[in-house]
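User: Reviewer 2 asked us to show a designed sequence for the structure in our supplementary figure. I'm pasting the structure tokens here. Could you produce the per-position amino acids so we can include them in the response letter?
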């Protein structure tokens, strides 16, 4: 760990948004899954959510192009429980769905706690996801096709959210809870030691200002 690397890790973590996320409902194609996670990382999403009703279609963790290390993924047993948890945490649930009554994606306030709900590549969002969402949005299309690829739609909408949040100064300083910030920073800086400590139930050692482990690594 070099001081320059540690400084970059802190800069990226400082911009992470605890109240901007995506909920992927059976998005199982590896290239789309990977591309969405890359967009999440680019706009500062701290943690993504996902549901795979058919576990055999769950993408491999190796398909995310390395982004999986920087964007956490929480899985849920079904779409109803995922929506309920996010709603309880105060998120507005916005379904990306090209319906006639869908609003232009630019006409939404993304500075509020927001979960963007995205559906499978061919079928789109199912009835439960649509019924459980607060509103539906779409990217206006001027051509013959009715909708964008799910990863392209995700990127388009997420970067509008980033634009609004940057204008509202939501990236100016860390908005993570201090204990979440500290544990995430250690896991990013020293993933092998973090795995060792988690397996044995040990607390993470302290880090110095350059990101080096300053205390002893626990052994018992």
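Assistant: Here is a per-position design you can include in the supplement:
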């Amino acid at each position: 760990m070099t001081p320059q690397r540690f400084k970059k890790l802190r800069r990226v973590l400082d911009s992470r948004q605890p109240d901007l996320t995506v909920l992927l409902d059976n998005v199982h194609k590896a290239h789309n899954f990977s591309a969405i996670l890359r967009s999440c990382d680019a706009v500062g999403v701290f943690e993504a959510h996902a549901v795979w009703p058919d576990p055999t279609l769950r993408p491999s963790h190796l398909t995310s192009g390395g982004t999986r290390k920087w964007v956490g993924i929480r899985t849920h047993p079904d779409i109803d429980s995922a929506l309920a948890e996010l709603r309880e945490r105060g998120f507005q649930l916005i379904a990306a769905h090209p319906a006639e009554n869908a609003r232009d994606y630019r006409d939404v306030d993304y500075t509020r706690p927001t979960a963007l709900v995205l559906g499978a590549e061919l079928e789109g969002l199912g009835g439960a996801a649509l019924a459980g969402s607060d509103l539906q949005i779409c990217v206006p299309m001027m051509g013959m096709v009715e909708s964008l690829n799910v990863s392209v739609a995700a990127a388009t909408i997420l970067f509008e959210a980033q634009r609004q949040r940057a204008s509202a100064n939501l990236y100016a300083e860390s908005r993570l809870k201090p204990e979440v910030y500290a544990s995430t920073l250690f896991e990013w800086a020293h993933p092998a030691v973090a795995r060792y400590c988690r397996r044995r139930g040990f607390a993470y050692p302290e880090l110095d200002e350059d990101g080096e482990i300053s205390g002893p690594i626990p052994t018992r």
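For the response letter, you might also mention the following. Helices lie at 3-14, 30-43, 79-88, 127-132, 150-167, 178-189, 191-200. Residues 150-167 form the longest helix (18 residues).
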